Fold these 4 entries.
Entry 1:
Amino acid sequence: MKPDVSVIGPVQASIEQKLTVKLSPKSLTISNDSWQHRHHAAMRAEGGGNGETHFTVNIVSDEFRGKSTMQRHRMIYAALSEELAGSVHALSLYTKAPEEVEVVSQA
Amino acid sequence: MSSFVEVTSPEQFKELLSKDLNRVSIINFWADFAEPCKQMNQVFQELSKKYPAGLFLQVEAEAQPDIAESFDIEAVPSFILLRGHTLLGRVAGADASGLTQQVEKHAAAPTYTPLSRTDQTPARATADITAPTAEETPEELDKRLRGLMNQSQVVLFMKGSPDTPRCGFSRKIVGLLKDNSVQFSSFDILTDEAVRQGLKKLNDWPTYPQLIVKGELVGGLDIVQEMINSGELSPTARLIVD
């Protein structure tokens, strides 16, 4: 039974809170992809995981300016070290500084 | 070893059984006062000649009360079939055909004796030279990790192998590298827990896959994807491919 993705679990809430505090993002979107990974070998071994194992994070923040992608990812990993030591297996990260965000509205 | 023995003591009985725990033994509990026993003893002797693979033990129940009690013998004649200490069957009473049947079933041919035996557990398989030794110190692990990271220009630490990836991200990154003609060697972190945890610490990077170029961590799937989009991977790739 596919979970209701509009329900935010405790891990996702924690991720949101920590990134907001650490990076004061202009925009932050987190999506829970765990359902798609539930039958991978590692997840099967854990009985499918707890439903909060894989997330995609889209984040725009001033803090990323002048930093390489790797450095940006490290900042996020550092902020979420607790979650990564816990149930979170993987994070898909899209990190941008405000200037780098493509302005879609331009014709 | 003789296949017919008259048991005279519990110690002898125990010793006879333990000599070969693979051998089938047939125990005849008999008594002097019971007429049917005389006949069955004869049958018993005949069987011992016909089926020498079995160990035929004759026990006078009243003379050996301890042995009889340990098998719950309530009446004579009674016959017990054992393999070592495992009970194979019982025959109660002067049932010659029943006894013959059981003996034939269990003691017809010599039991299989393995040519060699060992009590040791099998040795751990080590397929390649980069496999760790039993006790690996942190320094040894560090050295091994650096060795693995430098084994070629581009090394991918992934879950599974390029032909059988065991994770969506690992599969994708293999696809990206192949699509961009990047030559790389790979290491399956699922086969080595020490490397799996050690590399995360060494590179200060909590996830897999990890792409290492010229001995240094470049990043995971997202970063590699970005590098391809921005054209960054090409200069690196050019360095590798030619």
Entry 2:
Amino acid sequence: MILCSLRDIVFGYENEPVIRNVSVDIHAGEFIAVSGPNGAAKTTLLKLILGLIKPWSGSIQFTPEFSGSSVAYVPQQASSFNSGFPSKVIELVRSGCYTELGLFRRFHREQHALVEEILREVGLWELRNRKIGELSGGQKQRACIARAMVQQPDLLVLDEPVTGMDAASRVRFYEWMRNLVKTQGKTVIMVTHGLDEARDYLDRVIYLEGKEETDHVSI
Amino acid sequence: MFQYDFMQRAFLAGGLIALIAPLLGVYLVLRRQSLMSDTLSHVSMAGVALGTVLHVSPVLCGFLFAVMGGLMIEQLRRTYKTYSEVPVAIIMTSGLALAMVLMSLKTTLNKSFSSYLFGSIVAVSSSQLIIIAVVTLIGLLFFMLLRRPLYSLTFEEDTAAVSGVRVKMLSFAFAVVAGMIVAAAMPIVGVLLVSSLIVLPSAFALRFAGSFVSASVLAVVTGMAGVFSGLTASYYTDTPPGGSIALILLIILLAGIGLQRAVKLAKKRRTGKTEAILRQQTNQTIHEGVLK
């Protein structure tokens, strides 16, 4: 089933288009990588899909079945934002539940259990009471991914999520994403430069060549 | 000193402002908008001047200008995304320029303006006290009821937007509340030092607090300590309260930084000694291994 359809998308900054006539379909239950050289507008493509920016022309449509589903996003170098933020790891990760809980609903046993499960999955349970500013780059990145995961999103959008992670953590992360897609039918879109090590876990690669007159999307 | 009505009003108003201004400061510092309070106070001063020239309530005009200034900063922040300090500079200079021109139109204004610039214990009237109480209540409700979306917004705007926070609306509401708090704090600390009451307590709290809630509580406690001791010092030394409050808050911040460094240094020394002992023991073990 097609989750999201991008048709003839054109977008740029100032007067210079960086995405030219891109058309691509995102299917539900896929683990997709977006790759390409620097400046190929990979992050821009993610932001267009997320609705954070509007295209100059073209259309981006989600299927009606997807409306009301939850989306989570981990931006590029998420760990570098607000490293002095006054929060413990567990407090930051728990804030991922705010979407579900709204303004006033209290945390229940299920949310506490989910937060614990995901913190254990990313290997940060032992560090849950550390201030996020005291974590290493890779650990901060994992905390941001954990925060996105507690939202239990149907669509997970990750911009270079393995930056700063060691090799073992990267493999564990790819396996985790693959498992989510396979067992729970989630959709994962991930910008990455490490196609070689991720390829075995992916369903598809969207390769933006950039700098060409018309962007080429190879699938 | 509490036998005087004006001192009772000053302490009450100061206590209320110290309850809300440092809380605003925590968000402003984390959103890298520390200079916003300074900018809004300059804009508010233009409003006070305009109100006096037009014989309309200067307090009300000051409030309206501060709120409008907040909205304009937020709008310009969205226009100048890459250079977020540009809107602050634009609005601050515009506010100051307008205030100066209006002040020159009415020479009697110059005399009373020093109390606006540096704050005054006697400047807090009963009607102003009511306004400060209302602003404090609005501010507290805003920060308490919307603490979850505000937390997400402050951590990272794009992820907040994707997770369903109405980022634009919340940011504009935040700008309005910021304008109101700045305008309410002006009679006590003055235009030039209003940011000291907003930024210094939160800068202190953010160095020590382990969680968002503790940062907010510590900022408020620090603000209270600064305001009450500053007002007392101002009464006994006959100095403007804005200056006394700002100086005391600065001393608290510097003492905190000094103490934190001393503790870190002591910890480092202790860890260094332990590591040296451990290294020695490890070497011995390896040596024994070789012998075996």
Entry 3:
Amino acid sequence: MSETIRRMKDLPSTHLLGTGTPMCSGCGGLEALHQIYDVLGENTVFVNAAGCMTLLSVYPFTPFRGSWLYTAMGSAPAGAQGVRDALDILLQQGRLPPEDDLQVVVLTGDGSAYGMGMSATSGAMDRDLDFIYICYDNEGYGNTGQQYSSATPHGATTATSCGSRGYPGYKKDLFSVWSAHRPSYVATVIGSEPLDLAKKIEKARDMTGPRMIIALSPCPTGWDYDPKDSVDIGKLAVKTGVWPLKEYENGVVTHTRVPRDRPPVEEYLQRQGRFAHLFRPERNEELLAEIQDRVDHYWEEVV
Amino acid sequence: MAPTLLTGNVAAAWGARLARVDYVPAFPITPQTEIIETLGAWVDSGDMPGRMVTLESEHSMLTAAGAAAATGVRVFSATSSQGLLHAMEMIYTVAGWRAPFVLVNVSRGLASPITLEADHNDVLAARDSGFLQIHCADCQEVVDGVLLAYRLAEDPAVRLPVMVNLDGFYLSFTREPVNLPDPAEVAQFLQPFDPGAIRFAASAPESQAVAVLGGSPYSYFRYETHLAAQNAVSVYGDIAGEFRERFGRERGAVEAYQTEDAEVVFFMMGSFATKAREAVDRLREAGQRVGLLRPRLLRPYPADIIAGALEGVSGVAVIDQNLSVGQGGVLHTELSAALYGREGAPAVLTSFIGGLGGREISPEEFYQMAAVTRQAVETGVTPPPRLLYTETELREIRKLQSVALVERDETSPRGGAGKPPGEEDKQ
Ligand SMILES: Cc1ncc(C[n+]2csc(CCOP(=O)(O)OP(=O)(O)O)c2C)c(N)n1
Ligand code: SF4
Ligand SMILES: [Mg+2]
């Protein structure tokens, strides 16, 4: 993959990830991973933390053409450190031919990235580890039944926030936390915007150092909606301004898409059962306004 | 070569250097720090090739160690106590990966209360993990143990990580004369690491450590690991034999000292066993037939070798420098399990807990333990387990408590909790 991706027709037409995985139908995380893998290619080793994607590789099958190492929930970036360092040592000693080198890719959910694995991730960035981090963010501990995590948005019901106000906390700004480490690259992506995604992954692929990607991953099971709506919901997340598409490079944050005429956030919210309590039995105007205000405020700062 | 004076920590570092390790993921903890500082200095000065990286926790350190070994390089790491527990999830995990590398543990008592000095609760917390364990009694054994550990870990019939244990302070910071093996000889003894098919390379995609669904594949892999660990008993025997041929030092799975004709045998591990050896000498001078049996290899458990060495012995005084709270001594439990129902096994196993958090075990206590055990043999009545503690120690603790109470009550303006309820606020 040496051609630069500019238009939809430049997107890879061969698909590398095998089918038949045990992910739920309509899984937005898998949708993103498919596209990411097509751009990264098979000369990769995925270092995975506990989460839904752990079940991609179940003995003795794998959908990956390249390599895979499952670690634990809290330390996938440290696993990447070990693999990268070992590959470098082998290359340096001439025990591994350069064409056998691999791109080391951490693959974790938000529970890992925003929480348990945060110090391991921070450490990997401190050490300027040459790796790509893919966080598929389904805004909760999906694999254990969608309890709230530090990535859960304000007001969402989860298995551990089922009251009428939903989750009382606020989604952590991981993009800023990661950017504060000044890594080579940080970007947000979403599977429903394949061109934006592919451009960013391609850019990340061709850089060195820590390259950090957060993919918002609509999750029919955890967000409670019909699997066929995943792409629509993803598009709405971007259009309404809930999920800003942006990148960080050399100390500068650039929005790769600035949504004009943002439709109200409720258009995004009302499609998902996890926000149903904001609309029924009656509209929770206060909470809806708070959520809208936060989004508006974000974009006021941008423009 | 003339012996050099080395601490146990520097001896461990020499073990890694002589083993020509490629990669050292590290994290500091007392009393292990001197190991990683020594290695760091050698790597920085170029005296030792290889790469060292300090992680942000032992959990990450163990993950990186296992991942690097699974990628195909020779890995060394070291920790202690709280660090080992912090890494415990990965201790089990990387053993299941069958990632062969060596982890030195410098034993130190576990919190709470937090302390710095040695006992074996830390390393024994890892006993069921799949890591093999070699326990050292002196600084020479530390260098030798690291070299033996690499041979054992990397053996195709084993392929498991190995822990080499030395006691904090008693060995880690104690200088002893150590014969450093000749690097050329070591290179003969320990060939370069051959990872075989377990590695990562673009031309040979590999999925490692994948999930399983259900008890059947899970049991399959767990049994495989167990069987590999059991292979390690005879593999270790062969390696130790080769080591003796080449370096002239006996490093068998157990050290049997004066056990041949012994009636009563001390059974314990680690550096405190050297105190037991002293006691054996004194007791022998006094005409008592006493010996010492010390496992070097604790995992796999060399049950047959231990049972063989205890054949004909009447009573064993098991001295546990650990405490399984609510149960007792781990070595005592395991030895009982290994001997039960065996013909010719000692009739009496007495149990003593001592040396916790580095507490001294005095010669008199060894004499007492031998006497208690001999008496049990004579009467056929085994006494309940004993927690070694002297009246003087208890008096000292009580004194400290009273001094602290007086200090608090005399100096604190509010009187403090030492005053009867209701009187605190009367000043
Ligand atoms: C140390 C540890 N604690 C808890 C778990 C249980 N667990 C497995 S997956 C998971 C959720 C992970 O959440 P996230 O990273 O968001 O991934 P997702 O499940 O949403 O894909 C949890 C809590 C675990 N595997 N390890
Ligand atoms: S729970 Fe959500 S993230 Fe997990 S597999 Fe199902 S759809 Fe995907
Ligand atoms: Mg999640």
Entry 4:
Amino acid sequence: MTCSEANQAMNAYIDGELGPVEEAAVRNHLSTCKLCQTEYSTHQSLKSSIRKTSNFSPSPEFEARMRKSFGTPPKKSRWVFPVWSFGGGAICASLVWGAILLLQPRPQTIESEILTSHIRSLMPGHMVDVVSSDRHTVGPWFSGKVPLAPQVIDLKNQQIPLLGGRLDLISGSPAAVLVYGLRNHVISLYVLRDNQVPTHRSTIRDGFNFRYWDAKGLHYIAVSDCDANALAAFQSLYESRAHS
Amino acid sequence: MNNRAEADRFESMVLVHLGSAFALARWILGNDQTAEDVVQDALVSAYKSFSTLRSPYAKPWLLQIVRNRCLRHIEEKRRLSYEPLDESFQEDTSLRNESDPEGILLRKLDEEDIHDAIEALPEYMREIVIMREFEDMSYAEISQVIGSPIGTVMSRLSRARKALADNLREKLQESPL
């Protein structure tokens, strides 16, 4: 690589926008060229100076006004109180509970959505939005993209390498999906916050195994066509590493 | 959008980016009140067209709406005040193609200097610096927001950084620290 080529690629290099081959070529050139090293330092210095500068932010009043105008309306519960006040507590409670059960999403719904999403991801080009086996790359990639922070665990030493991550919508709510490889199988680990999820720990649907668990206020659902014991072992490893 | 689930989705997918939307509008328009008005206007538009959003990641989509509203505001203001054509969004070809200065001690500059230097950039460069450095958006996402190819993003970013470095070097020379 010449100095001119390195200079042309410098911005994309410091922004992490080069492919692995180009990135390696620039890195190699920088290791031998003092002139370009100076150029690189100047770029990095400028970038870090800008990033340390404070950004504009909306006033709390404006933010509150926008959330009031465009956010979730307050829950309307006024109809409950008159009924309670008339002494029909037990009947009302039964009705409300019945309504809650009826209105609750059936567990099959989220399972079928996740299964569809997982199967779609197995098609070429759909598996991951960020390709990396480095949890320090995959974890921060979700930052600002979904309103939750999944814990990304490295299971490379357990022969379950991280393949990357992707975004998805499950029942209309954003989900982070971590993708792991287990021999010839792919495990999609869905991390959700707002969805109603099944209360059972495992299930099987159309030949795919599911495992469910909660951690730090988030719902985790693993799905794969690997055997049930292997998926249970994956969950066990993931949870133990997450707690360590 | 009249049900609670949709409102929840709008809040978790779009309103979470309110800070980014305001910051971009504020950098483009240079005024808090105008930025608030334009962002509110953009949110109304986003709210109405929310059902057309196909990606689970709404930030580029929202910022694209905000940016378009900002540009429309600038254009209307110019038309009403009979100001001469604002060329800030036209390509600036006056930047010299000399190599970057060596060893600029940029870290010695204070925040105000850097803020001033960013604000002195033409809008078409400034918005890209803001999206890249403050919003940490990829070239592809910025390209989506401004509706131009990635190559345009790269060339504008490169020229913006060059202009910033030149500006800050001048500041250092004027008042050595």
